Amino acid sequence: MNKKGFIFDLDGVIVDTAKYHFLAWQQLAKGLGINFTEEENEQLKGVSRVRSLEKILAWGNKTISQELFNDLMGKKNEEYLGYIAEMDESEILPDVPKVLKFLKENKQPISLGSASKNARTILERVHIMSDFDAIVDGNDVTKAKPDPEVFLIAAKEINMKPENCIVFEDSVAGVEAANTANMISIGIGSKTILGHADYVFNDFTEISEDFLKSLIEK
Ligand code: BG6
Ligand code: MG
């Protein structure tokens, strides 16, 4: 069989941590007197912690000191880590293990490409760290999605050329990053939001082995 590099985003693709990020940001925004909608939240998905807070402040027309900014980022992460601490395997999204198993059995290299600095903690909590040949996360990059840096490093780590890589992403910024990296982008979520992806599925239960085989043989 051919070889392709399969790169997985983490939050919202492997585990449903997107809801915890939302809850933690919402709590913080409320404290600042800022309200943001689920629609605006879509723009925070895949985006780094720093950039997320900058966006929220811009929506609320607020300027704050660097000291308070750093303080709030710390608080958001503490709140988020509180949710993470409660996680276990049951939070892995449906059929993700099945897809990972299929790729492993067919000797396809697998990489993680996440913006999160908490990626390793989460992978440990849900016990799937060993499924990845490489892990690239928010600690390894200088430029946040939609910049393609995280995926380019993820491809390099598994010795694959970008054009031979396939990215699973739930965020607008992440799909854009994969496209810019010249990789095949697979959106996990709604077609309305991820229409710029090469393929879109609601979740992994809709991804068949035949489809994966066709990507590998392409
Ligand atoms: C992304 C999430 O995976 O990681 C974003 O989609 C989040 O919502 C970003 O802001 C950074 O995560 P963390 O865990 O480093 O704050
Ligand atoms: Mg995501």
Overview of this structure, please?
This protein has helices spanning 18-31, 38-42, 49-59, 66-84, 96-105, 119-125, 149-157, 172-180, 209-217, and strands spanning 5-8, 110-113, 134-136, 165-169, 184-188, 199-201. It has 218 residues and is an alpha/beta fold. A six-stranded parallel sheet has the order 3-2-1-4-5-6. The protein starts with a strand and ends with a helix. The mean pLDDT is 96. The protein binds 6-O-phosphono-beta-D-glucopyranose (BG6) and magnesium ion. Magnesium ion binds next to loops.
In short:
By secondary structure, the protein is an alpha/beta fold.
Descriptors for this entry?
11% strand, alpha/beta, 218 residues, 9 helices, binds magnesium ion
* Total DSSP E strands: 6
Radius of gyration: 17 Å
What would you call the structural class?
alpha/beta
Q: What distance separates the N and C termini? A: 11 Å
**Ligands, ions, cofactors:** 6-O-phosphono-beta-D-glucopyranose, magnesium ion
The low-confidence parts are none
Rough outline: globular
**What is the makeup of the main sheet?**
6 strands, parallel
Strand content: 5-15%
Order of helices and strands: EHHHHHEHEHEHEEH
Question: Number of helical segments?
Answer: 9
